[in-house]
Amino acid sequence: MIFETLFWPGLAFNNRRETKRDRKLTPTKLNAPLVGLFLAAFIIVAATLASISQASAAGPSCGRASWYALTSKTASGERMDPSKLTAAHPRLRFGTKVEVVNQRNGKSVVVRINDRGPFIKGRIIDVSKAAAGHIGMIKSGVEKVCYRVIS
């Protein structure tokens, strides 16, 4: 009933008999502006939800982090350079600057998100080897950290 009212108004409340002309008309031909309006509303809602999820990911978060030193291409398209201060995060936008603090020793480093990951359950961020060296986690490989978005 709602679908007919949105995409084919008059169908739900029309008591007259259907004619050959009615059969030739399609919902798209009848209501192209209405379909466009519906699509625009859908896009606005999707964009709002995306910004909400980005904002929730932007709050301070704590968990386990690991480091990696591959030289393959990252999800952002650039080549991974273990000597740069970069990191991988599952949701934050590429280019986002994040401060990562090692909870064991209090050391911190600012990294730029340029990849997706980590892909191991229970880990919240992967940092490059250089970043791991700055916060003293190369030997352990995995440490409890907190991070917060800077920009």
TrEMBL record:
E.C. code: 4.2.2.-
Highest taxon of the lineage: Bacteria
TM helices/strands, residue ranges: 30-52
BP term (GO), one: cell wall organization
InterPro entries linked to this entry: RlpA, RlpA-like_DPBB, RlpA-like_sf, RplA
GO molecular function, one term: lytic endotransglycosylase activity
Presence of the UniProt keyword Nucleus in the record: no
Class of enzymatic activity (EC top level): lyase
Entry annotated with the keyword Membrane: yes
Domain RlpA-like protein double-psi beta-barrel residues, every copy: 61-147
Keyword field: Cell wall biogenesis/degradation, Lipoprotein, Lyase, Membrane, Transmembrane, Transmembrane helix
Pfam families per record: DPBB_1 (PF03330)
Family: Belongs to the RlpA family.
Annotated function: Lytic transglycosylase with a strong preference for naked glycan strands that lack stem peptides.
Protein name (database record): Endolytic peptidoglycan transglycosylase RlpA
Organism per entry: Hoeflea halophila
Gene responsible for this protein: rlpA
